[in-house]
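Researcher: Before we compare anything, I want clean individual predictions. No alignment, no superposition, just each chain on its own. First chain goes here; please echo the sequence and then give the structure tokens.
Model: Echoing the first chain and its structure:
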Amino acid sequence: MNNKPSTKIDFTIIDSLRGLASLYVCIAHCRGVLWIGGNEYINLHPYNTWQYKDWLIMFTLSLTKLSGEAVIFFFVLSGFSIAHSLTYQPKIIPFLYKRFIRLYPPYILGFLLAIITVLILKTSPGIFFSGKYDTLLFQKIAASLVLLTPAGIIKTLLYCPDLHTIITPYWSLVYEVIFYVGAVFFVRSLRSYYIVSCIFFAAGFFIGYLLPTYTTSSVLYEFLFQYNFYFMAGIFVYHNIDKINNRQLIVNKYWWVTCLFLYFFMIGLESTIKERYNISFIIATVVCTIMICNMLSKKIFIAPLIQIGKFSYTLYVVHFSVAILVAYLLFTFLHVQPPYIYSFFYWIGAVFICVGVAYLFYILVEKQTKTYLDILRKKNKETI
């Protein structure tokens, strides 16, 4: 394993980046669940009838299209953080035990909320389970009945969730778990890990280019040929941050301009080729690297994002269910006509509701796991 970086790693800054990523995902999903959507809006309002309000609405819509890229932020930050953890706690069993305590209870809480959400939706079967509305949201809701079955419960508890349901955001957690288990072995020979990861990623790129219609449901395949690369990037940044900080191309006073440019460039890619060939994901990795290095070196603290970062994991695992419950309230009690919600403002309010509910759930579970781990770390120090 490489030596510890001399750059001081202030993890409150890393928390702020987690807060940014989780808040962005929450915003994107609330907009997706609680607004009609771009294509349907254009069908109702042709371009030649648009006024300033319509252009503003569609511009705002375009700003929330990068939820997948925000998840890549999480992967890079996870690689960065785990590299730090394994530098100071290289023993396998204690590391995995702490990861389990840290992550599994909030995961269970999020799953319980999803189950409760489905049970609540079942009280209005004529709206949500009649098959009358054939939109992606209603398809997910109908498929979510599987979460109430023994098989669905067991699979989810074992990190094999059905991603066609309202726990769709859990797709990334599966890759996180695979990485955590593998990381204790990856970091033993970083150079080999970097080389092998790049070879697999390049192979996945060419497979996607030569066989654009090829798809697979293998989680392990997707991890090896795609997502592992982003975790690896985080590990690489951690162990080479001193060198990166000396690169003026990465660390300079115009870094935020570069990030904004790349952000809008990713939006352009999402509007044209979408996530094909992982190009926007690679750019998201670059943006995350630029932000990590500049914010750490310049000691940039953004208080609201730091606070959200503290419960970013809980926000990630509960926000989609909360957004669905808001849709339930709109369709059943406020008499919004399904399947579409035309008001542009409901989803904005839902973001605040999601953040508030996530914070309460954080106090209930995730904060308790952090407190327990802090006590555990203190005891370990005392015994050394």
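Researcher: Okay. Second chain, same rules.
Model: Second chain and its structure:
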Amino acid sequence: MGVGYIIGPKIGGVLVAGSVLAWWAMIPLLSTVVDPSLIATQLVKLGYLADINVAGGKGGWDPVLKTFSNPSSAIYFAYIRQIGAGAVAAGGFITLLKTMPTIIGSFRDSVASLKEKNEASIARTDRDLSFKVVIIGSIILVALMTVLPGIPGDGFLQKLLLGILVIVFGFFFVTVASRIVGLVGSSNSPISGMTIATLMGTCLIFTAVGWSGKLYEPLALVVGGMICIAAANAGGTSQDLKSGYIVGATPKYQQLALFIGAIVSSIAIGIVVKVLDTPTVDMAAQGIKHAIGSERFSAPQATLMATLAKGILSYNLDWQFVMVGVFIAVMIELCGIKALAFAIGLYLPLATTLPIFIGGAIKGVIEWRAEKKGEVETRR
């Protein structure tokens, strides 16, 4: 509700409208026209259900009765998330186009700052790290991706393409993620939706140059994974810089601290993931090489990403659901409503967006009462 109070009733209403469309219109409609067995088959395809003959999974599938204990959840994970991912991708692209003048202006100022030698003329609260850091850091990132043996790829050119894709998609989704934080906050940012869009874009580029099949799936997942991290960090960084602006901090020193935090956390998280991924003795006896992705650590989001990569690179993805989301976003934008806010609501569960709407409504009521009180005092 705190996020809703910050963003206000208008954007909160657009957010919850997306969820209302998904949960009170699309899901009830799909539940009446789609057979539960087909929904279960779709969940198996996406990795949310082990097998159609096995109970469990999203929505609580019962193979004996051929029903779900929670059909809404099953339909949400089987269809709505893909539709929402398409909407978020389209909404993000539209947002990028609309903010392009701002981005170009910022880029122009950053390039101009390369020639600026005197920081004394810049206010302390406006001093950022030099744009040279961004350029040099991007070059180092691409170079490391081409030489590190742990990065998948057959030869220098493949790894170089991965590095370039990370820079290009990173520029796009870091901008979008920073914008989203202003709408719903860092904790509700649809990182998985942006990662899905990155993964789809990467796989489409691969298929365009003739890279298809199982060999190229790890390459696409590397790009998707790095953009997932970049988008998450972008949201958190934007929130930190905004907080710093409120208290009068120096952005340059905040950014240096964020560098240190990112390096330390990446080492700690890397060690934790490595430990969790190590199979137990019993798992190793069964031939399981990675604990993450097994029944012990099912990792449904990662399974979804892998399924998407396999589907596109093997020319077997349900594009119809993704395109539904794309054209919903286009339609909303044509109606004069912010497509990205609506798309986020379409992707997120109603349980997440409804409290945001309530917070926005509370702010709306408070502002309305304040205006009324001001009118009464003016009349006196």
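Researcher: What stands out in the second chain?
Model: The longest strand covers residues 61-62. Additionally, The radius of gyration is 23 Å.
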